[in-house]
């Protein structure tokens, strides 16, 4: 029974003439729905007394299914049913001297809450339950603070749906008890499903980030591998040297942009879709390639190779190292690279603009 959901019972039976009958009917329905209850007082005016009566009278109450929270140094609740069905009760004394704080903190251990009638404490408990995302059943048709809590429920933001909120707002009738117990079970199941969905989404995010990090490592290793090939292979052909020279910034740019994407995604905790990953890698590859071309072209055009070589081998070997660094930085800061490229004036049209002026 300890694995079954537990519902906190909060409110009183003084705000409406139908409240005592409704409380007993709801207690019976909760027991039949295999829901445990969490109670705090045996005062005849409070909701718990009537709910416990109906709960035990259902003859379906399991062992330790009625959890009683009470102050250790205060008066212990005294339910009539505890003498005839002692195994149904689960007594939980609380050592805290501030009972009001303990009462609200106990809602952390509840899966849902039943609100009926009541005053300020009921209203606050309802607001706390909404904030904790608990399953909530508040009977607006029986007046009291529970009706004020019902007015604050919003479908989509809170756990209850629009149909469930509408059902809670109807006038009380005896046939609603089983519906209300099912409503709580539905909300609890919905919360479990949403938690599983969130967990699965987080797992997928971590997997996608991991794979993208692996891709970044592969791109980076491929770019860096160009350097030892060029430096250690003394008789490297000119054609291969040119390929390494112009290809390494592309790989480094893709690595830089992918690393940036993984870093930003991890920091913000957002999902990484395949489209965003592929697009970012492609943009980084282009940014690294353009930055590498600008650097390498500037170097090659200012230096004339000897002995019929297209490029001087010694110079090319050194440029490959710089190409990897420049490509990686360009991919890492690709947003700045593209902004700079877009704002650059490729053709000087100042003389044409001057002629247009009168």
Question: What does this entry look like structurally?
Answer:
The protein has 358 residues and is an alpha/beta fold. The protein has two domains: 6-172, Rossmann fold, CATH 3.40.50.450; 201-356, no CATH class. It is 60% helix and 9% strand. The mean pLDDT is 85.
Question: Quick summary of this structure?
Answer:
The chain contains 13 helices and six strands.
Helix content: 55-70%
How many domains, in number, for the residues?
Answer: 2
**CATH topological fold name of the largest domain:** Rossmann fold
pLDDT below 50 for ≥5 consecutive residues: which ranges?
A: none
Please report the first level of CATH classification, the CATH class of the largest domain: Alpha Beta
User: Biggest β-sheet, characterized?
Assistant: 6 strands, parallel
Radius of gyration (CA) equals 35 Å
Main features:
358 residues; 6 strands; six-stranded parallel beta sheet; single chain; alpha/beta; 13 helices
Secondary structure elements and pairings:
Blueprint: E1 6-11, H1 19-32, E2 36-39, H2 47-57, E3 66-71, H3 81-84, E4 89-94, H4 99-105, E5 112-116, H5 120-131, E6 135-138, H6 145-151, H7 162-168, H8 177-232, H9 238-268, H10 274-301, H11 313-332, H12 334-343, H13 350-356
Parallel strand pairs: 1-2, 1-5, 2-3, 3-4, 5-6
């Amino acid at each position: 029974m300890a694995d079954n959901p537990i519902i906190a019972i909060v409110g009183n039976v003084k705000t409406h003439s139908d409240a005592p009958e409704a409380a007993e009917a709801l207690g019976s329905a909760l027991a039949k729905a295999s829901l445990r209850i969490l109670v705090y007082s045996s005062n005849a005016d409070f909701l718990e007394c009537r709910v416990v009566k109906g709960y035990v009278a259902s003859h379906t109450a399991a062992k330790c299914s009625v959890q009683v929270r009470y102050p250790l140094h205060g008066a212990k609740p005294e339910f009539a049913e505890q003498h005839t069905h002692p195994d149904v009760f689960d007594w939980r004394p609380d050592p805290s001297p501030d009972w009001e704080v303990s009462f609200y903190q106990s809602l952390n251990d509840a899966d849902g809450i039943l609100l009926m009638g009541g005053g300020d404490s009921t209203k606050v408990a309802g607001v706390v339950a909404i904030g904790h995302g608990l399953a909530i059943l508040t009977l607006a048709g029986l007046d009291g603070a529970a009706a004020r809590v019902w007015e604050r429920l919003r479908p989509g933001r809170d756990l209850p749906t629009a149909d469930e909120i509408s059902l809670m707002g109807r006038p009380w009738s005896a046939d609603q008890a089983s519906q209300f117990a099912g409503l709580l079970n539905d909300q609890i199941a919905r919360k479990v499903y949403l938690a599983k969905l969130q967990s699965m989404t987080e797992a997928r995010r971590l997997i996608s980030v991991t794979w993208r990090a692996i891709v970044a490592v592969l791109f980076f290793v491929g770019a860096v591998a160009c350097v030892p090939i060029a430096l250690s292979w003394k008789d490297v052909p000119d054609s291969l040297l040119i390929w390494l020279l112009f290809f390494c910034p592309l790989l480094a740019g893709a690595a830089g942009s992918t690393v940036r994407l993984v870093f930003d995604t991890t920091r913000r905790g957002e999902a990484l879709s395949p489209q965003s990953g592929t697009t970012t890698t492609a943009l980084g590859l282009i940014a690294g390639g353009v930055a590498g071309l600008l650097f390498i072209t500037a170097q090659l055009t200012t230096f004339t190779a000897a002995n019929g070589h297209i490029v001087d081998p010694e110079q090319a070997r050194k440029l490959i190292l710089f190409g990897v660094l420049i490509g990686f930085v360009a991919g890492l800061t690709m947003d700045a690279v593209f902004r700079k490229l877009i704002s650059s004036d490729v053709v000087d049209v100042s003389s044409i603009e001057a002629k247009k002026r009168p």
